[in-house]
Request: fold
Amino acid sequence: MNHQYALRCSGLTKRFNGKAAVDNLDLEVPAGQVFGLLGPNGSGKTTTIRMVLGIYARDGGEVETLGSADPLGVRDRLGYLPEDRGLYPKMKVAEQLTFLGAIRGLSQREAKQRADAWLERLGLGDRAKSDTNELSKGMQQKIQFAASVLHDPELLVLDEPFTGLDPINTRLLKDLIIEQRDKGTTVVLSTHRMDQVEQMCESICLIHEGHAVLAGALSEIKASYGESSVSIEYEGEAGSLQGLAGVREVRDSGRTASLLLENTAASQDVLRQLVDRVRVRSFKLAEPSIEDIFLDKVGYVAPVDGNHGDAGNNGAVAP
Amino acid sequence: MNPAKVIAIARREYIARVRSKGFIITTLMVPGMMALYAVIVPMMTRADIDELRITVIDAGTGIGGALKTRLEGIESLPIEMQETENVRESEVEVVRQRFSDAVRSEEIDGYIVLTPDQQTLARSQYYARETGNILITETLESAVETTILENWFAGEELERLRAVQRAGMETITVSASGEERGGFLVAYISTTILGMLLYITVLMHGQQMAMAIVEEKNSRLVELIIGAVTATEYMVGKVVGVLGTGLTQLSIWLAMVAITILGILPGLAMGAAVAEFDLANVLDARTLAYFSIFFFLGYIMYTAMFAAIGATCDNVQELQQAMIPAIMPVVMAFMSTFYIMTNPNSFASQVLSFFPYFTPLTMFARVNVAEPPLWEVWLGIILLIATAGFTVWVAAKVFRATILFHGKRPSLAELFRMARAAS
Reply:
């Protein structure tokens, strides 16, 4: 694989009943990275994934998956963890894994060996002969992950992989994903959890209402947003952060807040104003978080709240 | 199509089907039911006539006593004989009134009147409330005849007479390919049994497979599968898996029959119901060869229909309704075999056997009962092959177009459009 991109698409479009779920979307996933496909629920992430994997026919646009214009032609080199998890409830765990490996092109024997090895790795060796529905949700999710990588895919697509996992299993899954990347697998991580993206992804694409609103290397995106944000810890009256000069927007969490600065504003001026109003416990110039960038990009506006007064917005609420 | 993937899908489906409770239950139940049908049912029909109370009125033939003794000795019918009434011929009508009243008031079930006859020694009449049971009337008639004959013959001649009566008559069907012992009854039974095997296995496993497909859609497993194999591989795998299930079940049943023939389980013998019934006759090579052809083709055709229907449905309730078009041809074909068996070469039978969605059962019935011209049989088989192929092809298209479809079930017109788009 000498392609620079594991996955590319341009003008990708899918309509359901005439309404575009994915609208003219461009996507470039560099090979060998963990790539974050970000977006709120219903933004078109899953539909995009289904199209690039060849599960859905697209209504428009071009796809190049692992260098092939037909994703189905390279299906044995793709791994997929769907958002709606599904396993055969009455099937034995080891048989299930073997089956899912075999339909990705492994021989029955090879699939069986790898299934057993993975079960051992995940600490589920003793459950190999259990019916799948006897396993806890977390265990089933680990099985499902194993199924998606059993055949050593070159491109691994994980749709909301952390949903419903406890912290220990979340940690384990992160390690497993990074391990895949270290082996050279390109990982597409679809999620609405911004914190995970910050931790794991090198590049992202932010989808909103079927459009890509932001794409590129995470570091570049953050740099372009510059020092335009300040995070503080404070004690003071509710609403006392409103109306600061040079502050574009306030995300007030009560005890902490992040202040998005206007491009020309100097952080020192803001600090000076703050000291007059509240007791500042900490003041930190911050890179904007992905969450801030995301909310900024999709035009999120905080709901009107009597205690906080009007911060100059018109009270519209994003979905 | 990647054969390894088809096998992987088929293998999973096969294991799931064979391990299901339904499979185990039917595998055991069907032979059990047939044994019941063969052994218990005749016993029950015999037991139905509990104690037939009969009086013989002898108007001077002199054989009344002998007839009474003979009737008492019949094992297949439990008869309780009243004292024989010896009357003069002129009194018969008067006495008869009295006995008819007794029949009406259910003191007795019937009576036989013997009146002297120059030629035949005696003429007999049977008066009873129920005269429809052929088993009873035939038994009584033959008892009267035998009594008369035995009255005439004695010694060695009597022995010879009895031997003749035991010999009975054998039925042999003459056909173009040869002669077949057993005749209609054997063909009737083998057609019913084998037809029922196809009927039960295809309906049961086809429906279960359709249900499994709906479950795969609901659990979104289908996304994983369709991401990994083509819709056609998926469907063909399913059909092959279900075919394997049917063949496994059939082999188990045939093995049971073989064991029965070998006499290891003589008590289970299906033929016990019918005198002179030989299982080896029922399952001759020709019947089995045709059965294999029709079972194989019919099974694939019907199963493909179930698979396509399963793909179009989103929940089990919806599926129940939607499966009717696949169930109907199987049921109707099976029902029409009963007509065909009695009229194998009528025009209606010909039409029924050439309609491909009926052919697996209807043509098999014709072939088994009569011997229709070979060209007719093979025309039916060729039409069936073409239709089965066409059905699989259409089913694969519908399957591909609808397998990921969620929401309202597509109308027939929409299905056609989707199928065209998918090609």
In short: Chain A touches chain B at residues 50, 53-56, 72, 75-76, 78, 80, 82, 84-91, 95, 99-100, 102-105, 107-108, 147 (CB under 8 Å). Residues 5-222 of chain A form a domain with the Rossmann fold fold (CATH 3.40.50.300). Residues 305-319 of chain A have pLDDT under 50 and may be disordered. The radius of gyration of chain A is 23 Å.
